[in-house]
Design a protein that fits this description.
With about 325 residues, this protein is of the alpha/beta class. It folds into two domains: about 1-120 and about 250-315, Bordetella uptake gene, domain 1 (D-Maltodextrin-Binding Protein, domain 2), CATH 3.40.190; about 125-220, D-Maltodextrin-Binding Protein, domain 2, CATH 3.40.190.10. Helices cover about 45% and strands about 20% of the residues. It contains eleven helices and ten strands. The protein has helices spanning about 1-20, 40-55, 70-80, 95-100, 140-145, 160-175, 185-195, 205-215, 260-270, 280-285, 295-315, and strands at about 30-35, 60-65, 85-90, 115-130, 155, 180, 200-205, 220, 250-255, 290. The strands form two sheets. Strands 1, 2, 3, 4, 7, 8, 9 and 10 form an eight-stranded mixed sheet that branches. The chain has a two-stranded parallel ribbon with strand order 5-6. Strand 1, helix 2 and strand 2 form a beta-alpha-beta unit. Helix 4 (about 95-100) crosses helix 11 (about 295-315) and helix 6 (about 160-175) crosses helix 11 (about 295-315). The radius of gyration is 21 Å and the shape is globular.
């Protein structure tokens, strides 16, 4: 009798698993954004929010959990139940760079999350305050800084941010001596550049394009492999004398590990029609990004390549792994 009950219980449990996926989503969905409200990734996910609500027939809540370079939000998603109600909005910093610079993460971003899809990608942009730096090209900037070793600062969103690591890669490739001044977020970084405290920075193009369009910053180069569609007159860092230089900002959706494969597939299937959403594509392009609905495998590959690249940069820049 005991054996029979155990077998019966196991059978019921097996039936319960696909039933969860078949009825999914039966409850509101939460997407944890490890960035601040109003930031670039927050803007992106809120463009997807109403479209996902229409596809799922359930409310989709964006839960901003900023802090510690994205670790707070990522850890909250890591500890969430894998029941198909909580997902993570990953990005180049929180789910790429952090794996390279922190030793004490309670998770491995490459194995403890199930990728669903890239949503958006875009280049980083090198911008300067030309009132402080009388330059008009990347080569002008390199020559100007090289003549003033250790005298100029650059702004970033903090140690391990995409802005920080992109500039450290640039420094490693050029041998320039520029001091790092970390700030809290894009508004503070932008204010520092405009004030001349730190008159240059790399930042996500989506974050700095409005400042460029207003004439606050000069855009010297973008970090994509080829010229970017929204800034066709701006050269790449690679074509400006640093061949092979390439970094990306991106946002993508993933789930806590052990989330059912059937739920991952259904979520991914709901995203596929957005590839033909012209209004969404145009809105994202206006922010300096590109709509990318990828396969889960492509998102995993993006994360793997990022971790490899940023591990190398951290070692070259002698950034201590915390």
């Amino acid at each position: 009798m005991t054996t029979r009950r155990l077998l019966l219980g196991a059978g019921l449990a097996a039936l319960a698993t696909p039933a969860l996926a078949q009825g999914w989503p039966a409850r509101p969905i939460r997407i944890i954004d490890p960035g601040a409200a109003g930031g670039g990734n927050d803007t992106i996910i809120r463009l997807f929010q109403p479209r996902l609500e229409a596809a799922f027939g359930q409310p989709v809540v964006v839960d901003n959990r900023p802090g510690a370079g994205g670790r707070i939000g990522v850890e909250a998603a890591f500890r969430a139940a894998p029941d198909g109600t909580t997902f993570l909005l990953g990005n180049a910093g929180a789910t790429g760079i952090n794996q390279a610079i922190y030793r004490d993460l309670p998770y491995d971003l490459r194995t403890d999350f199930a990728p669903i899809s890239l949503l958006v990608r875009g280049p980083n942009a090198l911008v300067v305050n030309t009132r402080v730096l009388p330059v008009r090209s990347l080569q002008d900037l390199i020559a100007h800084v090289r003549a003033r070793p250790g005298q100029l600062n650059y702004a970033s969103g903090g140690i391990g941010s995409s802005a920080h690591m992109s500039m450290e890669l640039f420094k490693a490739r050029t041998g320039l001596d520029i001091l790092h001044i970390p700030y809290r977020g894009v508004p503070a970084m932008a204010s520092a550049v405009m004030a001349g405290e730190a008159p240059m920075m790399f930042a996500n193009l989506t974050n700095v394009l409005p400042f460029v369009q207003r004439g606050d910053f000069a855009l010297l180069a973008v970090s994509s492999a080829e010229r970017w569609m929204e800034t066709p007159d701006t050269p790449t860092v690679a074509e400006s004398g640093l061949p092979g230089f390439e970094t990306w900002a991106w946002a993508g959706l993933m789930a806590p590990n052990r989330t059912e494969d059937a739920i991952i597939r259904r979520f991914h299937a709901a995203l596929l029609p957005l590839r033909q959403d012209a209004a969404l594509r145009e809105r994202i392009a206006g922010l300096g990004g590109e709509l990318v609905i990828s396969t889960p495998e492509e998102l995993r590959d993006r994360m793997q390549r990022d971790v490899t690249q940023w591990l190398d940069v951290a070692e070259r820049a002698r950034i201590p792994r915390e």
